[in-house]
Specification:
Elements lengths: L2 H7 L10 H21 L3 E2 L1 H4 L1 E7 L5 H10 L6 E6 L6 E7 L4 H14 L9 E5 L1 H29 L2 H25 L2 E2 L1 H28 L11 H11 L1 H25 L3 H34 L2 H14 L3 H11 L6 E3 L2 E3 L13 E2 L2 E2 L14 H9 L22
Parallel strand pairs: 1-6
Antiparallel strand pairs: 2-4, 2-5, 3-4, 7-8, 9-10
Helix pairs in contact: 2-7, 2-11, 6-7, 6-8, 7-8, 7-11, 8-9, 8-11, 9-11, 10-11, 12-13
Length: about 425
């Protein structure tokens, strides 16, 4: 059966939680790159955040680089110029963002632009000034909304599920925020109010994808602590594989229209506002799909496996599986040893070349005091232990003698 068909039917078995350390490393590297870029390079803030004067005028066949040259010749400080498309036409406009200018300087710039770009009517040049106070208000409102959202998420998940699921979900949300902000820092895309709106939208999607996986985990782990069918990590991994195709479908459906906004609307049509919105959505949606499967769920499994009840569950599951040669091999692989002996009742099962015999020690949860085992994993027996075990073989065991000295395999004549 092909991989695509098994994905569609939910029959995949990707060892996502078994390989969680690799995903932790990948996430740490990506987050580290994003943080370093934000600290060293910073962001390309729009005029709405740092204040300044903007000019928008017809390109008339000229480029944004030529507009930048005109402004620099006039002694205007650092400027940001970009070409914008006009809806329904092939004509383009040029938008230049500069530092705050006086009225006299604005008039000088308009006259120079009108001359260099062949603009007959000066009313086609639209200057506008924005103070930094408005941008700071937007930033404060965005931060207030972000903190309120995170608090509401923690309360809801803690009530609906449990606090450890809330902690894993918050880590995934912060991971998505840092990666999205890091992309803006690396690419030096202009950060506008549209970017802030897109970031808040990404938080909701990322949380939704994580909640879907957590709901399946809760279903698979209900009553698990009192059984021996699987460990918590195995149940969580099963939930991830069961929801894997759903997460992929949801992410693709969400990314397709966003890709249209980003690549068609922004790059082909030149709509700068769409570019600010679409890039944050595209990166955030992709990061949210990754974090819900490869970060939030493995982190939740690590947190839950530290609880005493699930540590005891893991010991019981390993002890139960060690009752067969396959289970013993699994325990040996988990313990890093070559081969171990597993007990079932009073018999002795030998796995590999070692054999551990009972010496009358008491068992508690698969651990024996006489065999120096913990969780069903034994140490190599000594010669004295093997000899004592051979003398005390239970009745009916191969080679044992019955009362009267006759071998158990011969009949009385």
């Amino acid at each position: 059966m092909s991989l695509a068909r098994r994905l569609y039917r939910g029959e995949t078995a990707f060892p996502l939680i078994q390989r969680r350390k690799r995903f932790y490393v990948v996430s740490l590297v990506l987050v580290g790159i994003a943080l370093v870029s934000m600290l060293l390079q910073g962001f390309n803030l729009g005029v709405e955040f740092k204040g300044g004067t903007t000019f928008q005028f017809p390109a008339n066949g000229h480029s944004a680089a030529q507009a930048r040259t005109t402004f620099e010749r006039l002694g205007v400080g650092e400027v940001i110029s970009q070409e914008l498309g006009r809806p329904g036409t092939s004509a383009k406009d040029i938008r230049v963002q500069a530092e705050p200018l006086t009225s006299a300087k604005v008039d000088e710039v308009i006259a120079a632009v009108q001359k260099d770009f062949g603009i007959a009517d000066e009313n086609q040049i639209n200057p506008s000034s924005v103070g930094p106070a408005w941008g700071s208000q937007i930033t404060n409102k965005a931060l207030q909304g972000l903190f309120a959202f995170l608090i509401a998420v923690i309360i809801y998940i803690s009530i609906r599920f449990e606090p450890k699921m809330a902690a894993a979900a918050i880590v995934a949300l912060i991971h998505d925020l840092i990666l999205t902000a890091g992309i803006y820092s690396l690419t030096q895309f202009v950060v506008t109010p549209s970017t802030v709106i897109a970031l808040l939208t990404v938080l909701g999607y990322s949380l939704y994808d994580t909640i879907v996986v957590f709901d399946k985990i809760e279903e698979n782990t209900r009553g698990l602590a009192g059984s021996t069918r699987s460990t918590y990590s195995e149940a969580a991994e099963l939930a991830v594989n069961q929801t894997f195709m759903r997460s992929i479908n949801t992410s693709l459906i969400a990314l397709l229209p966003v890709s249209g906004l980003l690549f068609v609307g922004a790059f082909l049509l030149g709509a700068g506002t769409l570019k600010d919105l679409a890039l944050a959505l595209f990166v955030g949606l992709a990061s949210g799909a990754y974090s819900s499967l490869f970060l939030a769920t493995p982190l939740l499994a690590d947190l839950k496996e530290r609880e005493p009840q699930y540590r005891a569950l893991s010991a019981r599951v390993l002890a139960k599986r060690s009752g067969t040669p396959r289970g013993a091999a699994r325990v040996a692989a988990a313990a890093g040893g070559p081969s171990v002996a597993a007990r079932t009742g009073g018999s002795v099962a030998v796995a590999g070349s070692l054999a551990v015999a009972e010496t009358g020690g008491a068992e508690t949860g698969g651990a024996e005091t006489g065999g120096a085992e913990t969780g069903g994993v034994g140490t190599p027996p000594s010669a004295a232990t093997l000899a004592a075990a051979a003398r005390r073989r239970p009745p009916g065991a191969p080679g044992a003698k019955r009362k009267g000295g006759r071998p158990s395999g011969k009949r009385r004549r």
